[in-house]
Each structure stands twice: as C-alpha cells, then as structure tokens.
Amino acid sequence: MALINTKKMFEKAFDNNYAIGAFNINNMEIIQAVANAAKKNNSAVIMQVSKSALNYANPLYLKAMVDAAVADSGIDIALHLDHGPDFETVKLAVESGFTSVMFDGSHFDYEINVQKTKEVVDFAHEKNITVEAELGKLAGVEDEVNVSAENATYTDPDQAVDFVSRTGIDSLAVAIGTSHGAYKFKGEAKLDFARLETISEKLDKAGFKKFPIVLHGASSVDPNCVAICNEYGAKLDGAKGVPNEMLRKASSLSVCKINMDTDLRLAMTAAIRRFFALNPEKFDPRGYLGEARKMIEDVVDGKIKNVLGSVNSMN
Question: Catalytic residue among 76, 82, 261, 263, which?
C-alpha cells in the first residue's frame, strides 16, 4: 500500500455522512498512536504537518515514518501539509512526497488569496496532489496561525462560490465559529450551522456537487486531559474547546475533514506530566513517551467513534 490523496476519501465521507480526522503529527509516538487508533476502527485517516513540524522533525523523517504506518496498519492514509504559508513550503511538501497540501492565504486581501491559491492548485494538480485552501479567518494561536478575535471573520457564502470557481481547489476550510488553540470560547460554544449549510447549498447550485468542507480549530480540549495536566502542575484554567456533539453534527453535513491538534498535545502533556510526578526516579524516554502514545491513541479512538463517525470507512 501507499499514501493516497484525499479525493476518494472525501467522496466516501460526503456520501456516508462522516468526516475524516486530520491529526497533526510531530514525532514517531504521535504517528503510531494515530495509526493504531485508525487501524482499531478500520478508519481512513489524514496525518498532517505544519511548517513548524517540518522544521522540527524534517520532512524526510516524517514521510518515512508515515510510510511505515501505512505498511504496518494497512489503512488509507493521506499525508497533508497544514497551513502552508507560501508557495515554497507547498513545493517542499510536494517534493517530499506529501499527497495533499493546504495553502493558507486567508490573511491576504481576497484577490491576492485567489491569485496565490490558483498558483498552488496549478502546480499541485500536475502532480496529482489535492489542494485545500481557506476563506475567512479563524481566531486563535497555533504554530503559523495567530489571529485576534477582533480580526476573525466568518466565511461569506457567495464569496466561497467565487473562490472555489476561480481557484479550482479540492476542499475549502471555512470559518463558522471554531478557533485555534486551547482557549476557543469564553462563553458557550457556538457554530454557525446555518452558514455552513448555505455555503454548501450555494456551491451545489453553482455546479460543485458534494464539495468537501473542512473545519480547522476543531479540538474539543478534552476536560479529562486538561484536569490531569492541571493536577500535575500545569496552568490551563479556562481551556475550552468545541463540544463533541457540535463536531458530530458538522461531520454529518458537508464537513468531510476535521482538524485536531490541541487535543493530541494536551493528551501527550497530561501523560508525561503524570508519569514524572508518579515516577520521579525514572528517566527512560520509552516509559513516559510510551504513556503519551497510549493516551493519544485513546483520544484519537474516541474521536473516530464519537465525533467523526468514520468507523469502518475502509470497507
């Protein structure tokens, strides 16, 4: 088996009312955890890498480890560039063997975003690489993303149709109320499902049938992981994410890809903090990293079963 792009993944997801989980990876333990959970549930999965992760882990190492995950698990895996900030980063990902890329030009003026996204699409499609882009601005801070609440803007449905038509992208990340990082909401979580449905309806009427929508900033900020972190010395008071039931509703509509990074970071941190607190005499990395791998696997397993609905999507 080999890595695949996201085209057929999303077609099946749309037709069967589920979403594919896109989990950010940075090292071997995270890759193994995601692959193990996906295999357990017979679910396709996307492993995605930010520019910061490329710099941290080296794309050659990441690609080789994900190839190993494909061979070991036997499941469909796409290797995706998350929030590619420029053409150079997209080119590096494609040349490193990634099968899907996201170019994020949402911080540019609209016409510049269209122009730069179209350049990426023309380049990637020649190599059978699928392209995701973003319209609207999600608030929050995570790796290359840093947008204040004041500068966040929801996706305009009419502009979404124009953007898809002019760029030729394969999937669109929309802003409907999610945000990056661990502190997504001060009050009650709210997602604009009416806007999501309007975007999909307008795309459908414009001839873009079953067009895949993507949700970024969609970690639920698992309360259990936050509690464990805080119990063992962290200061994460007020961390709050998107409720699972809202994400499940989104995945039953036109959302075919849901991005999750913060939940994996919290799981890893919780496991390691607890391990060191309970085992101050131990220093073997296999001990604390093994605990982290197990907790991440449990989190991803729960996401596939309770949020994404992608169990047995390999069938």
Answer: 82
CATH code of domain 7-308: 3.20.20.70
Residue with tokens 């080119």: 91
Rounded CA-CA distance 136/139 in Å is 10
Pairing of strands 213-215, 255-260: parallel
Are 225 and 217 a contacting pair, CB within 8 Å? Answer: no
Per-domain residue ranges for the chain? 7-308
Question: Do 158 and 202 contact (CB within 8 A), yes or no?
Answer: yes
* 158 is a catalytic site residue: no
Quote the distance between the C-alpha of residue 82 and its chain's center. 7
- Tokens 């050659």 belong to 60
Integer angstrom CA distances of residue 177 from 23, 131, 152, 170, 171: 20, 23, 9, 22, 18
Q: What is the pTM of this model?
A: 0.93
List, for residues 78-136, the tens digit of each pLDDT value.
999 999 999 999 999 999 999 999 999 998 999 999 999 999 999 999 999 999 999 98
